[in-house]
Amino acid sequence: MQFMLLFSRQGKLRLQKWYVPLSNKEKKKITRELVQTVLARKPKMCSFLEWRDLKIVYKRYASLYFCCAIEDQDNELITLEIIHRYKAYFILDEFLLGGEVQETSKKNVLKAIEQADLLQEKTQNMYHSKSFIGCKKAY
């Protein structure tokens, strides 16, 4: 894996982890280009795309996009599984907030997660039906 980015639907970078040495200028350029590319894609499009000399694997959970850049020989499905496992932290945040227990009921936590997923789908459909008619090419 070359790097992992987490960013919002508005394109605001929330987390970045780089596994290759790059200058800050190059990181900013890559981030800007990749965020624009991923946000321009429709919800029903494949979560894998070729970008520059890398493969990009991304997934949206709630209002965040999880985006990983992998090399050509790396497995996209394993990368998608890594992203999916990261969602466990979202579930943990439903139980705890600021180190304090917020909810003890599994049923209520699952309900909150289902509501967040439903809101994500509604927002995604509304956002893409109004804003994007076409899709930009990833190159």
Q: What does the model show?
A:
- The protein has 139 residues and is α+β, with helices and mostly antiparallel strands.
- It has a single domain (3-131), classed as 2-Layer Sandwich (Beta-Lactamase).
- The model is unreliable at 131-139 (pLDDT under 50).
- 44% of the residues lie in helices and 25% in strands.
- The chain contains four helices and seven strands, in the order E-E-H-E-E-E-H-H-E-E-H.
- The longest helix is centred in the last third of the chain and has 26 residues, at 106-131.
- A hairpin with a 4-residue loop joins strand 1 and strand 2.
- A five-stranded antiparallel β-sheet has the order 2-1-5-4-3, with helices on both faces.
- 14% of the residues are buried.
- The radius of gyration is 16 Å and the shape is globular.
Largest sheet: 5 strands, antiparallel
Compute the number of helices. 4
Give the low-pLDDT segments: 131-139
Structural class: alpha+beta
Give the radius of gyration. 16 Å
Overall helicity: 40-55%
CATH topology: the name is: Beta-Lactamase
Number of domains: 1
| Spatial arrangement of strands, main beta sheet | 2-1-5-4-3
Spatial gap, N to C terminus: 20 Å
Mean pLDDT, rounded to whole units? 81
